[in-house]
Amino acid sequence: MMNFKFKLMITRSQSLIIITLLIAAYYLVCGIYLNSLGYFNQESLFYVEKTRIIFEGVGYKLKVIGLTAPAIPFFATFAFTPVSSLLAPVIASALGTAALFYLMATTLIKKTDDDYYLLLLILIFLFHPGLLYTACSGKAIYMALIFFYMFFLNIFKFYTSNTTFHISIASICLVVLLFCDYKFIWLTLFFIPLIFSIALQSLNLAEKESLFRMTQSFNSPSLRRKLINKTFAMYVILFILPITSIICYKLLNLANANDTDYFLNSPYATWNVLAERLMYEKTALRPDFKTPETSLLISMRMIMFCPLILFAITLFWRSTYQILTLLTPFAFVEFLHIKYEKVILVHEYYLMFLILAILCFAIKAQPLKNSFWFKSVLTIIILVQFYTGYYFLANSLIDDERNFITVLKDRTPDEQQDENHDMANYINGLPDGSKVLIDDAIAYPIVAFTNDVGNLTLPYQENFLSAIETPNQYVGYILIANTKNALAGYTILNARYAPVMYQTGNNYSTLQKAYETEHWALYKLY
Fold first, then answer.
1. Which of 18, 20, 242, 279 is the least crowded, having the fewest Cβ atoms under 10 Å away?
2. What are the entry keywords (predicted)?
3. Which helix (H) or strand (E) holds 480?
4. Which of 387, 410, 433 is the C-terminal boundary of a domain?
């Protein structure tokens, strides 16, 4: 009988691997198809451009390798760049989201042998618009969700095992999470008071209620000393590694870029510096613009997106620490809204509530597995979430999110990158050996679409500033952002660039416009 059960578990595990591979194939087909329709987003093109610099560029590239952020998703695209540089982020996100499914399904089948819950999980990963966006867009959301899930999974494991090993693993997951999205550093603020509750819960006391446990601990000198020591130890275990990692990374930025926050503030290091600013400015200029959080708490929007999280919280209504843990992401997004008031929250922060809700049901599936009404309500809520997932993407203020669901629904070509394609194709058709001066702070989509990055003079190269001052000695062409380009003010290569304004000046070569689009102009030097 024992051997039969062991074989049955192996068979189930193998079946899960097959399902994961099929889901990965499904994501790859969808992602490649959307890519063929012309769907790209700023983040994936940024990764494409930086990886092409590393593999094909000429010059000192260590700064690009070490300081491009977010670092972990950027490195994840390396393995797939030899397959196709443009498809590398899509392949990484497709396989990464399939890996997220495998991790969650593994947790689920360990808790229950009821395959109905596994079927629901499969349906969520196959049809939820937000998870399709995660898998097929080429964005780094998948990596953040994986380690967000692992972080909270180990926190919950600690509650049941009361061993600090899981806190140590959670700390490692938090480190990786910070290098996937630095904004998660603020999540730690809300774990500082929670750590005290966790330490209190870990004491071996007969009392179960938090208030009585606290009273008993404070009244006893030995228990008070033990509580203080445990609290301090847990602070060290959970936070010392993330803090040390961030300090070291900031010192690396200081040593190589003379700025500890280079990876946060430089458009050469991260894609979202200008993207977030431009998106807010474009949105704020709309006549009908109204910040969605002005009349409604952002937490309520998260609940509207993921009503499953409320249902999940009710499963722990007798567990104070678990409920406090589940409430920390709500405090986190409220804090982000206050601190980054001119930044629209991206879909990643909505999806983390879906992941957290699924984790709760995976943990609590076993005691409730035979409840018909529980399964019925759960199924209905999941079906509702398919609609809310679609609604939030279709009505998003962020162009990349809205374009994705439009292309996915209509299956029509996306023309958002056509202009960048046209300019890149013209550059590709220049005579062999033609050097082009480009500032990839804003022109990285064009660089991503070019055939030969080695012929481009870019800011990472030591001769870039010299080429800016005396372009005729270094390049034959200059790419200029014209006055209609919303990002023209963020680059020196714009209509106010001296060689363009004073074409017949003392030391400037004669420039002639070789090719022009609505937002870009390519000049040839004579």
1. 18
2. Membrane, Transmembrane, Transmembrane helix
3. strand 477-481
4. 410
Q: Residue 206: what pLDDT?
A: 57
The residue range of the domain holding 204 is 14-410
Question: Where would I find the H helices in 162-285?
Answer: 165-178, 192-202, 210-219, 221-257, 262-265, 272-284
Q: Give a yes or no: residue 109 inside a domain.
A: yes
Residue 280, both tokens = 């807010």
Q: Is residue 281 part of a domain?
A: yes
Q: How far apart are alpha carbons 491 and 440 in whole angstroms?
A: 9
- Coil, strand, or helix at residue 453? helix
Residues found in the chain = 526
Contact call for residues 310 and 377 (beta carbons, < 8 A): no
State the residue for tokens 């087909």: 29
Ramachandran sector of residue 59 (left: φ over 0; alpha: ψ -120 to 50; beta: rest): left
Q: What is the pLDDT of residues 172-190, one digit of tens each?
A: 999 999 999 999 999 988 8
pTM: 0.92
Quick one: pLDDT at residue 218?
Answer: 67
User: Is 2 part of any domain?
Assistant: no
Residues 200 and 52 in one domain: yes
Tell me the C-alpha distance between 227 and 246, whole Å. Answer: 28
Q: What is the pLDDT of residue 127?
A: 96
- Mark whether 256 and 405 lie in a shared domain: yes
| 446, 424 contact by CB (below 8 A) | yes
CA atoms within 13 A on the CB side of 279: 22
- Show the low-confidence residues of the chain (pLDDT under 50): 1-2, 4-9, 292-295, 504-506
Q: In total, how many domains does the chain have?
A: 2
Cα distance between residue 441 and residue 61, in whole Å: 16
For the stretch 199-217, pLDDT in tens is 776 666 656 565 656 666 6
Q: Tell me the pLDDT tens digit for each residue of 120-138.
A: 999 999 999 999 999 999 9
Task: Tell me how many degrees the CA angle 459-268-480 measures, rounded to the nearest 5.
Answer: 55
pLDDT in the model for residue 404: 95
Same domain, 254 and 357: yes
The structure tokens listed for 361 are 């049901």
Which residue is listed with tokens 């304004």? 501
For residues 29 and 136, the answer to whether their CB atoms sit within 8 Å is: no
Q: Are residues 106 and 185 in the same domain?
A: yes
306 and 341 together in one domain: yes
